[in-house]
Amino acid sequence: MPTSKLTVMQIKSAKPKDKEYKIWDGLGLFLLVKPSGSKLWRRKYRFEGKEKLRSFGPFPIVSLEQVRKLLEQDLSLIKQGIDPVRKAKEERLEVKIAAENSFKTVSEEWAQLRMHTWKSEKHKNDVMRSLNIDIIPELGSLPVSVIKPSDVLKTVKLLENRGLGETVYRTLQRISSIFKYAIATGRCETNPARDLPPALKKIKVIHHPALPVKELGEFLRQLENYEGYIYTKISLELIHLTALRSRELRLGRWSEINLDSNNPIWRVPASRMKNVSDHLVPLSIQSVRILHDLRTQSVNNDLLFPGRNNPAKPIS
Known about the structure:
By secondary structure, the protein is α+β, with helices and mostly antiparallel strands.
């Protein structure tokens, strides 16, 4: 085995042959020249009485100077009783495990598992948007086992600083749920999101006042005599008779309503109710009469309450 050192010029001028061949550098390090023209750094050495072969990568991606530094590191490991090949395999395995245990990977698994329980396409889009825009850019590359409460707090504080009060708490709940999944699957042992609510601003909840029961009769009398926008009057009458929320009513479509059966019914889609199944609303005689009258107001439109300026959209 030659002991003279290789030069960059020798490496560059080495031509491929019919069979692969080696150009030695010293201390077991050599350049393997393949018939294809590729040039690969290798090193032969002995560890615990066995011959080993170490790969360092291709030239010129790994330069002559770089490979000699890698050789020095290997020699140091061997002096410490550590096999460089075994250590390299362990490091590759650690990288693989870290990738599998990254917050991004775990959150994607969590989302895939939970997706079927989300009540609507809108809810699904909201969750995925929250993950991809607000959470993963901050935590995605970190293994779940090393994420600290301060990391999670920093993530949700970015939202709090933008004045997104309710979004802050929803985001924290999602992060906490992801860590519960990570604990259940053996990726980490603690939930760094669990105890953070006291570190966040409290949300001021403003409740809309309800109409006192004793004033309901007067309200209905005034509604009966109301001469303003017809859709406003009809929608308020139907809210009173069906107990639907304003949004559920405004977005209503004629295709959801059956007025011709012996038991008239309104089938409100699950997606609009934020529910797992459709919501069935039995229609009273008064409701049927009002809806028949309404039908004459929205001819050739599937929307119950088409907008005044844009009939393709419901009233707001």
